[in-house]
């Protein structure tokens, strides 16, 4: 009902319910009026944290607070060199902020490129606008693959079918007619139409869901949750140990107060793995930046990690292995059909669909003479049906109805036309059947009694880089499964041309068992699947996941949406439908399937390297806690000042960890991050603490008189450095020239500190005599041998 009609009844319309405008949409003046009233779709969809949130997340941490308090204390009671750890934390925090800010800029710029541009009708003309520019009452046009970005009411419907499964869980598409509601977050699977926006902004049904789904996030990650678990354990260990150390150094021992405070702080600070969270954030952020340079939009940060764990990637053929366009190579009339009439029918079918898919567009290009026939009924293509159709009134007034679709769906299994189709499919060609039918086109048995009229042969354009990408996955032990709605033989032929391992094992999905376990067995056994429905794609992903596989799904069409949503990692092409881009965690904006290896490699680099450096950091935490416990039990002075452990941490952990975290790493990520790290860190920390404390006790018996404590500290520092360097040397394997250079440089830096007089004074490190220093080296050598034996034993026992 129009505004004028409402006024004639003396009623005032609800300001929140704008009645549908004319078919031409709103005028420019009406749009401006609504913008002035604030009736705009102003949902702040962000792809990243704000700068304020980035600074807050990096600065206001629990461990920064602890270290900050200790730093302030040290500034008052000890020389500046004992406060160096505070400056290191400031530098680390700054690095984290800068890197995440760079990642934010990259993501924001890519998000603008990949943003959906809905089509609205204003002033009688259609135009693409930003999602945030839609106003209340706008007439929004819809086509296959388009996502409803606001709530509304249908005003035009041309066989419009909308999938609301992502919102309601209802699997079957819903046929929409004028007057029916449209919910934001749903998407079109067939047909087209237009709806009037009745709710925009935060009032739209899926506004909050869309905002959360599009936000750059560091959560829901095994790596992040594993580090949080580790930090929780560290806190539990640190608190009672630190209290015991404070009591021991300040109360039990009758030493100089300032020196006691300094050694107490020296025992507490290294318990905190302060750089671990930083390096994790930096590694992820740099991963985002690197992928951004390849036009890869990471909509959810853990997707980098998830793709590194993938062992099966499911590929949709069209748009992934092949380019979107097709070419008609031949039209073969059947049963004596007139070739000219066949081409006229094909042209009319193309003209009857305002939004043709790739196959129909190729037919339109090949048969452009499609105007003039009256369309009495039209059924748009649906992935579930595998055909489209239309009924016409021809030039001579005769009525006819036609279907265009998969031959093996439209014809019975014994039809002779299928033999001809099979030969073409074996060559990797796509074949559609034009069939004349009687009865209603939208009836469930519309294809019953169809008369084959012609075969339309289409050639698909293979992506030039698809073969190399498939070879990469095979080399990395990632199984590729091609899942397509096309004929299985045709898909298999395409896969064989690209060199897909196992491409000879093809299966028609209509023969897949319904039992999930049996289905998983068939999927693992075969590599190529044809005639797969959208629901089957979803079921196949679930079946593989039930076997413990980590599954990635790639696609660009509306028929891939459900599977993309359920897969562990969904990857969409930038040219894909709005719906696929909305649910995918990774969008390849350059539409290049060849970008996927870069994403996998980046994920493996992040996961593998963080596992390595986490072992370094936690080894330090373990030996620090154990040294503090031993000091309390033996009632002796803590052997180190903060400056000593700052030096050791920088040379054996901080600097090398930074380089190791950003190094190439092709190992597939393994599960159970916490267990994998702790099974190496705990024995390493125990061995380091035992060797260091042994040296310290021996030195206490060896040295006496003034300066004895400094000599004891220097000997203990030498042992701890050598053992820590051996841990670093193990973690740096397998060696490359730069890894060897890194370890050697760290060792050389320590020798410089021991050799240069002013550095000796600055760090209070001076080896006294020859007996004790060589004893310290001998103890470290024994510890290194024990470390080697322990790591190899753990490696053999836990090969996973």
TrEMBL record:
UniProt main location, coarse: membrane
Transmembrane segments: 59-78, 84-101, 233-252, 272-291, 622-641, 647-665, 677-699, 711-731, 738-759, 771-791
Region (Disordered): 1-26
Classification via Pfam families: E1-E2_ATPase, Hydrolase
Keyword Transmembrane attached: yes
Residue span, P-type ATPase A domain: 118-212
Keywords: Membrane, Translocase, Transmembrane, Transmembrane helix
InterPro entries found in the cross-reference section: ATPase_P-typ_cyto_dom_N (IPR023299), ATPase_P-typ_P_site (IPR018303), ATPase_P-typ_TM_dom_sf (IPR023298), ATPase_P-typ_transduc_dom_A_sf (IPR008250), ATPase_P-type_domA (IPR059000), HAD-like_sf (IPR036412), HAD_sf (IPR023214), P_typ_ATPase (IPR001757)
Protein topology in the membrane: Multi-pass membrane protein
Places the protein is found: Cell membrane
Protein's UniProt keywords contain Membrane: yes
Source taxon at top rank: Bacteria
Name this protein carries in UniProt: HAD-IC family P-type ATPase
Source organism per UniProt: Streptomyces atroolivaceus
């Amino acid at each position: 009902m129009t505004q004028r009609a409402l006024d004639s009844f003396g009623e005032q319309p609800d300001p929140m319910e704008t009645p549908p405008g004319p078919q031409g949409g709103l005028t420019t003046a009406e749009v401006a009026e609504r913008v002035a009233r604030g009736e705009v779709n102003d949902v702040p969809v962000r792809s990243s944290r704000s700068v304020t949130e980035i600074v807050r997340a990096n600065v206001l941490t629990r461990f920064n607070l602890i270290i900050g308090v200790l730093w302030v204390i040290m500034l008052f009671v000890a020389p500046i060199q004992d406060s160096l750890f505070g400056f290191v934390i400031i530098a680390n925090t700054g690095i984290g902020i800068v890197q995440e800010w760079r990642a934010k800029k990259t993501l924001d710029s890519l998000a603008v490129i990949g943003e959906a541009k809905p089509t609205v009708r204003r002033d009688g003309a259609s135009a693409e606008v930003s999602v945030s520019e839609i106003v209340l009452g706008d007439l929004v046009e819809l086509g296959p693959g388009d996502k409803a970005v606001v709530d509304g009411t249908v005003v035009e419907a041309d066989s419009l079918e909308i999938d609301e499964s992502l919102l309601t869980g209802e699997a079957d598409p819903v046929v929409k007619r004028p007057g029916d509601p449209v919910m934001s977050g749903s998407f079109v699977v067939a047909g087209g139409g237009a709806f009037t926006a009745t709710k925009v902004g935060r009032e739209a049904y899926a506004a909050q869901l869309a905002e959360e789904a599009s936000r750059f996030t560091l959560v829901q990650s095994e790596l992040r949750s594993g580090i949080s678990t580790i930090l929780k354990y560290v806190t539990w260990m640190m608190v009672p140990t630190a209290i015991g150390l404070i009591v021991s150094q300040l109360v039990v021992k009758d030493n100089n107060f300032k020196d006691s405070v300094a050694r107490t702080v020296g025992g507490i600070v290294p318990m905190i793995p302060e750089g671990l969270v930083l390096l994790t954030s930096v590694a992820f952020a740099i991963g985002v930046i690197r992928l951004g340079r390849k036009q890869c939009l990471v909509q959810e940060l853990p997707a980098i990690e998830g793709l590194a764990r993938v062992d099966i990637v499911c590929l949709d053929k069209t748009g992934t292995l092949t380019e979107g366009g097709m070419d008609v190579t031949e039209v073969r009339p059947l049963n004596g059909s007139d070739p000219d009439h066949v081409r006229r029918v094909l042209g009319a079918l193309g003209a009857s669909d305002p939004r043709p898919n790739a196959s129909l567009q190729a037919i339109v290009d090949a048969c452009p003479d499609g105007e003039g026939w009256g369309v009495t009924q039209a059924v748009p293509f649906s992935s579930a049906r595998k055909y489209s159709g239309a009924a016409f009134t021809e030039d001579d007034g005769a009525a006819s109805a036609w279907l265009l679709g998969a031959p093996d769906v439209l014809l019975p299994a014994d039809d002779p036309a299928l033999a001809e189709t099979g030969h073409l499919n074996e060559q990797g060609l796509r074949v559609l059947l034009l069939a004349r039918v009687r009865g209603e086109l939208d009836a469930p048995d519309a294809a019953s009694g169809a008369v084959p009229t012609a075969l339309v042969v289409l050639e698909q354009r293979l992506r030039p880089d698809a073969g190399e990408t498939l070879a990469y996955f095979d080399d990395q032990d990632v199984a590729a499964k091609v899942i397509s709605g096309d004929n299985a033989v045709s898909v298999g032929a395409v896969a064989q041309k690209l060199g897909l391992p196992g491409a000879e094992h093809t299966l028609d999905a209509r023969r897949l068992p319904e039992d999930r376990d049996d289905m998983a067995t068939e999927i693992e056994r075969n590599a190529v699947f044809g005639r797969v429905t959208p629901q089957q794609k979803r079921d196949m992903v679930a079946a593989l996941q039930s076997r413990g596989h980590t599954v990635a799904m790639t696609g660009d069409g509306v028929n891939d949406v459900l599977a993309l949503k359920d897969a562990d990692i969904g990857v969409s092409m930038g040219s894909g439908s709005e719906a696929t881009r909305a649910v995918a965690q990774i969008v390849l904006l350059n539409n290049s399937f060849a970008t996927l290896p870069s994403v996998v490699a980046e994920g493996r680099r992040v996961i593998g390297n963080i596992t390595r450096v986490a072992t370094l950091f936690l080894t330090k935490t373990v030996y620090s806690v154990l040294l503090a416990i031993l000091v309390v039990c033996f009632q002796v002075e803590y052997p180190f000042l903060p400056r000593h452990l700052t030096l050791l941490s920088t040379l054996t952990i901080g600097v090398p960890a930074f380089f190791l975290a950003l190094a190439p790493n092709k190992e597939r990520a393994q599960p159970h991050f916490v267990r994998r790290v702790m099974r190496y860190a705990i024995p390493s920390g125990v061995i380091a603490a035992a060797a260091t404390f042994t040296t310290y006790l021996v030195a206490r018996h060896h040295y006496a008189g003034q300066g004895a404590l400094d000599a004891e500290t220097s000997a203990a520092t030498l042992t701890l450095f050598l053992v820590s360097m051996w841990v670093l040397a193990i973690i740096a394997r397998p060696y490359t020239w730069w890894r060897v250079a890194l370890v050697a440089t760290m060792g050389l830096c320590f020798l410089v500190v021991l050799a240069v007089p002013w550095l000796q004074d600055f760090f209070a490190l001076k080896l006294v005599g020859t007996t004790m220093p060589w004893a310290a080296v001998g103890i470290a050598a024994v510890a290194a041998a024990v470390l080697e034996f322990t790591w190899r034993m753990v490696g053999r026992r836990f090969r996973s």
